[in-house]
Hints:
Elements: H1 2-7, H2 11-21, E1 27-29, H3 30-40, H4 49-62, E2 64-66, H5 82-91, E3 95-97, H6 101-104, E4 108-109, E5 112-115, H7 117-123
Parallel strand pairs: 1-2, 3-5
Antiparallel strand pairs: 4-5
Helix pairs in contact: 3-4
Amino acid sequence: xxVSALGWKGASxxxxxxxIKGDLVLFLSTEIFDxxxxxxxxxxxxxxxxxxxxxxxQVLGVGSLVETEVKVEMIKDDPSDNKFLECAxxxxxxxxxxxxxxxxxxxxxxxxxxxxxxxxxEEN
Length: 124
């Protein structure tokens, strides 16, 4: 979702703007933030270092960085994706918004709805 929020207009961008306005609350762990940094630097996205740095500053300014309190082993296809579930459980989130197919196929986990940005916008 973060790559789309930076690079394109659309549901992800709107959701991130809702976080900036305070209409939605963004939580992320250090592991999630590190993944955002890593992915934004993929050469295929062609973001400048200034764009990346400014966006990461925004993410940190808007988001609440949390230390996860649980370990989850739900996602077997890509175990590193469990960090999103761990963060959501720690903060008792209502939603996980993601484009990752490994996460999306779960649909709901411990009462937390998992939606693509587009479906989230449709439902809310």
